[in-house]
Amino acid sequence: MNGAVRQLIVYIAGGLGLVAITLFIGWWQVDGPGRAIDPYSVASQSLPLPFYEMNFQLTDHSGRTHPKDWIGRPTLVFFGFTYCPDVCPTTLSNISGWLEELGDKTSPIQAVFITVDPERDTVQVMADYVSNFHTAITGYSGSAGQTLKAAESFRVTYERVTVDESYTMNHSASVFVYNANGEFVTTIDQHEPPGVAVQKIRRVL
């Protein structure tokens, strides 16, 4: 084997080794142990429970009180509150837009908006608030204890924060996507493009 061929083989072997190292680093950072974990993401916690394992009671203006009632239809779930200045109305507007884009395919979908501020968000307040958005969105309210149980079922975090003489609520802002069997499928982040969100919803239709 002459020197030129030997050198070529060395270059090829080195190139293949570099590719392998690059792929390994990519795997380590994206899917492997070295991936970054968002402390507020579902991936960093245990997954939300299926509806049939949840045990809490919330009420909407129609008197429905239990997540088991949601089984049978694809469901979007979002936690927020009516005094929310930006994230909540924006997310509910986004949900309305996704459902509008899906058109006739939205008929089986129900969207659940659960308040994390039951002190101010009564059943009627929630009903009036969601009337500003898509008709598939229903607002739910309950006692402080039942609200906490609901949040824990979805692995949602929230806290009351004093502001001047009033207060606001910090809370998780993902939309949870469930199939008609009441099983968790995925989440939609508030920053995801509409096309991505719609594709995720199509997975449960």
Characterization of the model:
The protein is an alpha/beta fold and 205 residues long. The chain folds into two domains: 1-36; 42-202, Glutaredoxin, CATH 3.40.30. The chain is 35% helix and 18% strand. The protein is built from five helices and seven strands; from the N terminus they run H-E-H-E-H-E-H-E-E-E-E-H. A five-stranded mixed β-sheet has the order 3-2-1-6-7, with helices on both faces. The protein has a two-stranded antiparallel sheet with strand order 4-5. Helix 2 links the parallel strand 1 and strand 2 (110-115). Helix 2 crosses helix 5. The longest helix is centred in the first third of the chain and has 28 residues, at 3-30. It starts with a helix and ends with a helix. Residues 18-44 have low confidence and may be disordered.
Indicate the CATH architecture of the largest domain: 3-Layer(aba) Sandwich
Helix content: 25-40%
Number of helices: 5
Unreliable spans: 18-44
Please give the radius of gyration in angstroms.
23 Å
Taken as a percent bin, the fraction of beta residues is 15-25%
What's the CATH H-level homologous superfamily of the largest domain? Glutaredoxin
Strand order of the largest sheet: 3-2-1-6-7
According to DSSP, the number of beta strands is 7
The tally of structural domains comes to 2
Whole-number mean pLDDT? 84
CATH class of the largest domain: Alpha Beta
Structural class: alpha/beta
The name CATH uses for the topology of the largest domain is Glutaredoxin
Termini, distance in Å? Answer: 63 Å
For the report, how would you describe the main beta sheet? 5 strands, mixed
Q: Give the CA-based shape.
A: globular
